[in-house]
Design goal:
Mean pLDDT: 94
Helix content: 55-70%
Oligomer: single chain
Low-confidence stretches: 167-171
Strand order of the largest sheet: 3-2-4-5-6-7
Strand content: 5-15%
Number of helices: 18
Shape: globular
Distance between the termini: 52 Å
Length: 424
Amino acid sequence: MDKNDVRYSAYVQILKEELIPAMGCTEPIALAYAAARVRDVLGVIPDKILLQVSGSIIKNVKSVIVPNTGGLKGMRAAVSAGIVAGDASKELEVISSVSPQQLDEMLTYMDMADMEIVHIEQGHVFDIIITASKASSSATVRISDYHTNIVYIEKDSQVLHDSRGASAASDERSERSLLSLEGIWDFANTAELDDVRELLERQIEYNTAIAREGISGDYGANVGKTLLKTQGNDVRVRAKAMAAAGSDARMNGCEMPVIINSGSGNQGITCSVPVIEYARELNVEHDRLLRALLLSNLVSIHEKTGIGTLSAYCGAVTAGSGAGAGIVYLLGGSFEDVCSTVTNALAISSGIICDGAKASCAAKIAVSLDSALLGYDLNRCDNEFEAGDGIVKEDVDSTISGVGRIGNEGMRTTNDTIIKLMIE
């Protein structure tokens, strides 16, 4: 792809927007970020908080441990951590530095603060509105659509920032409609790696580190360690196990950062760690690994774009098929092999639901990666699912578009039902 091609600069910018560091599950961290921002706007520690959140925020915060809170779960913990110890300038690493004194203060604040939590639905699947007050002063911060997208700030009835509106979020981010499998393949093969090297090297460093921590530690259901114990130690198992282990650690209180993809640390781990594991097994040149990561990351972003930031559609599926594309590249596969693998993977595992962030995400990652590897096995044996087989369309981009409609439109009622079950 020529550097003058409009897609080239867009793809580089998309990677810069998506491959960012986060510590902990990104939904509670977004709550902590909003809380830190509203405290800064108010200028003091508030004694009263009204937190209004969409159902998908409730779903993704309810069951996951918030890092640097002493093992606590839930929205009160996330908001209290942000209020007491948050550094809003760090965005999704907002509570990466919490002192023992701040932890004690946070626990006291949780007990003493008047915090009301209200479920709202105002047209945004991802929606956080936090109003904080002390004495006669109050402040409001709203985040919508994605984790750091502050669309509204108000203090004492004076509007300080307002970017609400249908195009507010999209205007600030690169055009995702330019993504296609053919364009991604071309970019991955021809991009000047120095344009993206720092992003990818950081992804390798961070996500490998948390995967190793998950394998060596004791986190959640220990899905990664269980895979190695029961299924052997070949590269196929290790690819699944290391990715699952990263999620084991991240979902269960590990305070190490990850590089996310499509707003999710689990997806960032899933589309990178298996590719890294295969590259080590195959002893490929490092630059080839970087190109494989370009492919896996952008395929995952392309698939998730139509689905949206939060959905009842499990993001491990899209990230797993993205990893499959990267692995096929490392194995010397062609563009057609990548398309077939992605199509097959989506045909196999698109029924996995998202019921929030928690320990079982690691197992869903393993299943999604298994589907991607099976998808490639089918391709190598000259077998594939054809157009008309269920959701499979005439080409891979049309299949991806259809999956986007399923996740965004078709699963709204499913998402509502999941939220009701979890709130009950």
